[in-house]
Design brief:
Layout lengths: L1 H16 L5 H9 L13 H13 L4 H22 L5 H11 L14 H22 L2 H17 L4 H13 L6 H27 L3 H9 L6 H35 L14 H25 L15 H8 L6 H26 L1 H5 L10 H15 L6 E4 L1 H9 L6 E4 L13 H5 L1 E6 L12 H8 L3 E7 L14 E8 L11
Parallel strand pairs: 1-2, 1-3
Antiparallel strand pairs: 3-5, 4-5
Length: 500
């Protein structure tokens, strides 16, 4: 019920009130056109999932919001299942419900991206690894390796929690037995087999995602800059934890002040090796991220903390020896539900109603449906073939797909390298609608895109749309509105369009 409630609260409310997806969700809509072994920035599994979701449910603005929340609550449910190995189900529910207040798991769960999709795979891998070390069956070791491999197919940062599990295996000496070592070897073999197709793709593309990572990595000049970046990163993570910490303080404080029944005893202590597992698995992702930032002298991105806090609540409850009571569980659920409702209302209203009132641009109030309607109308007025190919950035292309434009390929920024499903002759065979977002705060507005400009220069017909973004009634210039340059390239090849 709690999981379903969170999906409905966050997913449906955003899907009904937002008029456009978030940027990362738009990117997944664009990539999901084709099932590739990898994409120019990331591994492929989230895009494969989005591809299947579009096939089943069709594209919509609501789809990525609901899918993201399903990922988050699945991860929380698996974390609760792990907690049941350490404590009673009711006691495990208290910390996991509080963990849902970490802002990565609510207001940060707007985008269907590689960080949020990693959460359930990370939780499943952690649970299966723990069960495999305790029950030591071949099936559990194979499943642990399978989900570890799938985690890497979601995002390479999955190495952080996986490294934590291996550190635990190395530290806990009671695991150093022949059958357990063979089980770990089986998991590693399954892990490698899962990754083979992607590794071949990486070799074939000269490790394209790693080249992208090098391009966007910001190297820091000296130790002081590195320490300052680290302090900013840790402070941001503290802010993300604040609702969780406030909820934990309120629940435990009220519990200490309430009269205790003599029948209620101190909660039994966890076994030493269980305590060791929880400490290492909970702290490893954030600790390793910090160490990498220090050793590489590169800026840490705040979003790299997304996958660091799934076990935070369980660790906190393990440290709290006072026994739980029905009253504590009741208070916890009351606090959690209230905070979720407040955060959801604040974010949803802030990005839509309030932003519109103050004439502010947000992703949420971008007129994606108007963009899609203009695109189809303009294309049909200038050609006699269906619209099958758009040349644009991921934001505009993703909005066209989210608003129900028929099967549409997007040539990202005009580069075939970023859209390998669009062959070099596709523009001549299909024609193309070229779109350029020139709004002052557009995504990538300051980045030159010579390939897109070259295609815009080839357009047979060109024009401009002024979109009613945030209803800027009192704006002094058109630059304050959504200004989209468009161009229509008519098909010239006698060959049929491959996307028909």
């Amino acid at each position: 019920m709690l999981c379903l409630g969170q999906v409905l609260l966050w997913g449906v409310s955003a899907g009904l009130s937002y008029s456009a997806p978030e940027l990362d969700s738009a990117e997944q809509f664009v990539w999901a056109f084709s099932m590739e072994s990898g994409y120019w920035k990331h591994p492929p599994l989230p895009t494969w999932i989005m591809h299947e979701l579009i096939d089943v449910f069709g594209p919509s603005v609501m789809l990525p919001f609901v899918a993201t929340q399903v990922c988050i609550v699945t991860a929380l449910a698996l974390t609760w299942r792990l907690g049941c190995e350490f404590m009673s189900p009711a006691r495990a529910l208290i910390p996991v419900a509080l963990t849902s207040l970490v802002t990565y798991h609510n207001i940060g769960g707007e985008s269907f991206n590689h960080n949020t999709v990693l959460l359930p795979f990370q939780a499943a891998t952690t649970l299966l690894f723990y069960l495999a070390t305790r029950r030591n069956t071949w099936r559990l070791w194979a499943l642990a390796g399978l989900f570890a491999g799938l985690s890497m197919l979601v995002k390479y940062l999955a190495l952080m929690p996986l490294a934590g599990l291996l550190v635990y295996f190395a530290v806990d000496r009671h695991l150093h037995r022949r059958r357990t070592l063979l089980g770990l070897l089986l998991a590693v073999c399954v892990f490698g087999l899962v990754l083979v197709p992607h590794l071949l793709w990486l070799q074939r593309t000269d490790f394209l995602p790693f080249r992208y990572a090098r391009e966007v990595t910001q190297e820091l000049p000296g130790a002081w800059a590195t320490l300052r970046s680290l302090a900013d990163f840790l402070f941001t993570q503290f802010l993300r934890l604040l609702p969780f910490l406030a909820g934990l303080w309120f629940v435990t404080r009220r519990g200490r002040m309430a009269p205790q029944s003599p029948a209620i005893q101190v909660a039994p202590a966890m076994a030493r090796h269980d305590r060791l597992f929880l400490w290492i698995a909970a702290l490893a992702p954030l600790t390793i991220t910090v160490l990498i930032g220090l050793l590489s002298a590169s800026a840490l991105q705040a979003r790299w903390g997304t996958n660091a806090f799934l076990l935070t609540g369980l660790l906190g409850m393990a440290l709290l020896r006072r026994a739980d009571t029905p009253a504590m569980l009741r208070r916890t659920l009351q606090v959690v539900v209230a905070v979720h409702v407040l955060l959801c209302a604040g974010q949803t209203l802030g990005k839509t109603v309030i932003a519109d009132h103050f004439e502010k641009h947000t992703r949420a109030n971008f007129p994606g449906a108007v963009l899609a309607r203009n695109a189809l109308t303009t294309w049909q007025a200038n050609t006699r073939v269906p619209l099958r190919l758009v040349v644009s950035d991921i934001w505009l292309g993703g909005n066209l797909i989210a608003n129900g434009t028929p099967r549409l390929a997007v040539l990202i920024d005009g580069y075939n390298l970023r859209s390998p499903w669009v062959k070099l002759d596709a523009v001549e065979r299909c024609g193309a609608l070229v779109l350029d977002d020139t709004t002052d705060d557009a995504a990538g507005h300051a980045t030159p895109r010579p390939a897109l400009e070259a295609l815009m220069d080839r357009a047979d017909v060109r024009g401009t749309w002024n979109l009613p973004w945030s209803d800027a009634k009192h704006s002094a210039t058109a630059g304050d509105r959504g200004v989209i340059r468009w161009g229509v390239i008519k098909p010239t090849s006698p060959k049929p369009c491959p996307f028909d």
